[in-house]
Amino acid sequence: MSLLFLTFGCVPAPGTPDSGGLVGDSADLVDSADTGTGSLPDSTPLAEVDVVVIGTGAGGLGAAWAAREAGASVLVIERDERPGGASNNAGNYWAAGTPEQAAAGIVDSPEAALAEWATFTEGEATDPSVVAFVEASAGVVAWLQSVGVGFRLGDNVPADTGSVPRMHMLISGADPPPIQLAALLADHILYQTTATGLLLDGAGVAGLWVTTAEGAEAWVHAGATVVATGGFARNDAMVLSAVPALDTQAVWYEAWPGMDGNGLTLAAAADAGTQNLDHLGLYSHAVEDARVGQPEVMVVGALETALVVDAAGRRVADERLFGSVAMGRRFLTEGPFYAIFDDDLWAATRIQGRGFNYEGAPDDLELLGPEYAEKHGAAEGGDADALAAALGIDGAGLAATLERYNTDAASGLDAQFGKPTPTLAPLADAPFHGLPLVLGRAKSFGGLQTDEEGAVLDSSGAVIPGLYAAGEVCGFLGTPAIGYGLNGSVTSAWWSGLRAGAAAAAN
Ligand SMILES: Cc1cc2nc3c(=O)[nH]c(=O)nc-3n(C[C@H](O)[C@H](O)[C@H](O)COP(=O)(O)OP(=O)(O)OC[C@H]3O[C@@H](n4cnc5c(N)ncnc54)[C@H](O)[C@@H]3O)c2cc1C
After folding, report:
1. Could you give phi then psi for residue 18, rounded to 5 degrees?
2. For ligand 1, which residues put their CB under 6 angstroms from it?
3. Is residue 209 assigned to a domain?
4. Taking the CB of residue 477, how many other CB atoms lie within 10 A of it?
5. If you count Cβ atoms within 10 Å of the first and of the last residue's Cβ in the chain, which end, N or C, has fewer?
6. Total-model pTM
7. How far is the CA of 370 from the centre of ligand 1 (A)?
8. What's the whole-number average pLDDT of the chain?
9. What percent of the chain has pLDDT over 70?
10. 150 in any annotated domain
11. Could you tell me if 186 and 315 lie in one domain?
12. How many independent structural domains does the chain possess?
């Protein structure tokens, strides 16, 4: 099938003059005689391309880039006014074997990361998609650098990343990578255009239905369609169906509002199979939004320097682990958990909103502990018993835990969980402060099932001709071998986009 780009060489961004003319007249079609239009709509398509991509997050833009590089005609549709989706919020990129690591004296390689993959993801390191991603991760960072994105290596080792620093952090001040990539792909992107259904043509997918910025229903004819619509952590029905145990938990969102899982619904019409849906990214490193009544979270900065206990007042883990999805899962059976601060630590604790829920640059996006208490309230007590009473947890348990923690901190040795200094420091300055942690629904490490090229498989495991997936909609890698996922998984969203785009172009 030879599909040709309809003549809208330049698609104006919303708000710019003359965003019309997207539907070229038939004279613009050089050749559509071989497209097998038997079951296709009679109307003129909005566009006719080799590859149509849904979404301008990391997955979608990666796919568009690779498809264009392969010489395909590409159209990306994005329902929002601006590009990037949740990907604009991702500042930490996982990669193994980068020049940044080498320059910092960190010995790492894809082989080393694969050797410990199962320990930090609970996934399967021999899976071809896992191997290909890990081997390509440094290349993804290098590719983003080559188009202008700046990174620096983080010196910490967050949970879910393995045993050496692998977190590559965006250099602040620049536009998020999707904004930069979207500028380079501007001629290919239609904003405020929403995919509403796949166009099924016999056994395969031949494009999709859209609602245009003007509210018109239209269709796009494409040789391959890449679904890159993001995750489903914001869709309560999908979340509860995947993880029924969440039914007993209060609803707290850490996910971007657009993570509504609509790509799963779109693909279901083609009988797409799913995998790993129950491996939801849940985190217990946050507290209620200070704006009372909002179901959003605010993340507690440097939670690893606090003491975290359960309702019996017992410490449950090295506090550094609370940045991991493993502790989110433990919250379901062992929670709720409570963060305890002494007065000094409380005064310096930064509690941060996620950003996308706030208009402009509000002064309540980041609050110090006392500011949070003023806006929202927080438990306070002159000693462990009083604080426990204010929190509604066991006082004797908290007193014993605090005493033991402070003894260990004074000796510099955490005999219980091995937390190192300086994160292990005495909490002795009364009054004490406490906050219940909440369980944030952040992202999804399951979704559409794909093959090693990013082609979507149907419920019987067969390839659905013409349909590909990338990013969170396929749980990042399209395979349950991602386990419970990794911190910095946005790298795999870009990677699976590049993979799907290349395969779609070759379709
Ligand atoms: C506050 C925050 C911080 C985060 N920090 C990190 C981090 O540091 N590191 C990390 O690895 N991950 C982080 N994540 C998670 C990460 O951002 C996501 O996992 C990743 O961006 C998913 O990329 P994606 O391309 O799959 O989806 P998205 O980036 O969400 O892109 C999907 C796009 O598809 C569009 N779309 C959806 N449906 C349609 C439709 N029907 N028609 C047209 N367009 C549609 C959406 O508007 C969106 O633009 C963070 C998430 C949040 C919310």
Report:
1. 55, 65
2. 54-60, 77-80, 85-87, 89-92, 194-195, 228-230, 255-256, 258, 262-263, 354, 443, 471-473, 488-490, 493
3. yes
4. 32
5. N
6. 0.92
7. 32
8. 91
9. 92
10. no
11. no
12. 2
